[in-house]
Amino acid sequence: MAKLKNQFKIRRCIFVGDNDIISKENLEVLEKDEDYKDFESILALKKRRNKEVKEIMSGKKPLIYCRLKDNLEYREVAGKEGLRFIVCRNPEIAEQQRKDRNENMQDIKKALDELKTKIASCKHPSLKRIVQLVEGVLSRPKDRRLYGYKLNEKKRNFERMSR
């Protein structure tokens, strides 16, 4: 950046980066390195990779989007320290993801309910085995975000908990 600035006498430059080059280290360089401090940047971040974006997206007020096309909506949001975020979404993909998540939740719920019935039919099920079976149903990390469970040692069973 310093070479670019000096060699071509550039006074204003905007660094544009997408998900593939954005890392904590690169963000720190852009924010703190003297060679980059005069340059602006536009960065594409996935909401799950940035704490501030997560906070904006999970705020109490619903975000109102401007529609550019049927498959592209955006919203500008002011962040901390003068940062601006342009939050983009594809409503078609958002709807499909919502449907997929609901189907996944129903599948997990059904599997856990069937497992609970199966365990209840056993005379004296092992607590260790119950945990293994439940953990098997909730084996994927995203499944664990949707459901948890509480082991009931006295009844030798478990309770499904939505998150």
List keywords for this structure.
single chain; 163 residues; 3 domains; three-stranded antiparallel sheet
Q: What is the C-alpha radius of gyration, as a whole number of Å? A: 24 Å
- Counted beta strands: 7
- Order of helical and strand elements: HEHEHEEEHHHEE
Placed side by side, the strands forming the largest sheet appear as 3-4-5
Identify the overall geometry.
elongated
Average per-residue pLDDT, rounded, comes to: 82
- As residue ranges, the low-confidence spans are none
**Overall tally of structural domains:** 3
Secondary structure: helix percent? 40-55%
Assembly of the depicted chains: single chain
Question: Your description of this structure?
Answer:
This protein is of the alpha+beta class and 163 residues long. It folds into three domains: 1-44, no CATH class; 47-89, no CATH class; 94-162, no CATH class. The protein is built from six helices and seven strands, in the order H-E-H-E-H-E-E-E-H-H-H-E-E. The chain has helices at 2-7, 24-32, 51-57, 91-120, 127-137, 141-146; strands spanning 14-17, 40-43, 66-69, 72-78, 84-89, 147-152, 157-162. The strands form three sheets. A three-stranded antiparallel beta sheet has the order 3-4-5. Strand 1 (14-17), helix 2 (24-32) and strand 2 (40-43) form a beta-alpha-beta unit. The longest helix is centred in the middle third of the chain and has 30 residues, at 91-120. The protein is elongated. The two termini are 46 Å apart. The model has no long low-confidence stretch (mean pLDDT 82).
What's this, in brief?
With 163 residues, this protein is an alpha+beta fold. Helices cover 42% and strands 23% of the residues. It has 3 domains: 1-44, no CATH class; 47-89, no CATH class; 94-162, no CATH class.
